Amino acid sequence: MGALVKKIKGYLSLFLTMLKIGLFTFGGGYAMIALLENEFVEKKKWIEKDEFLDVAVIAESTPGPIAINAATYIGYKKGGFLGSIIATLGICIPSFAIIYVISLFFDAFLSLTLVAYAFKGIQMCVVYLILTAGLKMLKQMKKTTFNMIIISITLICMVVFSLFAVKFSTIFYILISGVCGVAVYLLGKIRKAEKQ
Fold first, then answer.
1. What number of other Cβ atoms are within 10 A of residue 74's Cβ?
2. Percent of the chain with pLDDT over 90
3. d(Cα 8, Cα 12) in Å, to the nearest integer?
4. Contacts of residue 9, Cβ cutoff 8 Å, sequence gap at least 6
5. Which DSSP string do the residues of 121-160 spell out, in sequence order?
6. Residues 103-120: pLDDT tens digits?
7. How far lies 53's CA from each of 112, 113, 141, 191, in Å?
8. Among 52, 84, 95, 163, which residue carries the largest CB count within 10 Å?
9. How big is the CA angle at 52 (ends 31 and 149), to the nearest 5 degrees?
């Protein structure tokens, strides 16, 4: 009986934490990444920093919103299949409820001057949250030669493509970097095999 109560408390804690993150995060999934990391890596210590970096990469490179993918993984890690469902619901319910309420009187809502100024303030906060998440991940990443080359090339390409208005999807950055990572791994395996 004690184990069941502990499990239920764990599920409730997971749900309430995801609900809080979903309720107080503006700006979408990228803004949520910083809050997910703060909550589950630093405060609750449910996952390690390296594992969270992997979660962010996998969540970004799989179909679907990054925050929902990350929440689903964290929920699965904490409570199995049921945990993944609870975490996903917890992160989605606030957004769904807020959007539903806004949709009922959308035109009147947007015409309020106070709302327009609130959104302008929120936009600045979103930029900060996304930048913070990116910088934290950059600091925690292992500084290998390969990683630094990939980051440098990606950053240069992003800046150059933006300056010259060349459309290049972020999906391609992810896929190309993934292929490069696999190639470097396989080359390392071949070199080890040759040395033996």
1. 29
2. 18
3. 6
4. none
5. HHHHHHHHHHHHHHHHHHHHS---HHHHHHHHHHHHHHHH
6. 887 777 777 888 778 878
7. 40, 40, 8, 28
8. 52
9. 90
- Asked if 72 and 87 touch (Cβ cutoff 8 Å), the reply is yes
Question: Which of 107, 68, 58 has its CA nearest to residue 90?
Answer: 68
Q: Which amino acid is at 106?
A: F
User: Distance between CA 59 and CA 141 in Å, rounded?
Assistant: 17
Length of the chain: 196
Using alpha carbons, list the distances in angstroms from residue 160 to 26, 46, 168: 29, 39, 11
Tell me the residue ranges of DSSP E strands in the chain: none
* pTM, to two decimals: 0.61
Enter the tokens of residue 48: 């390690």
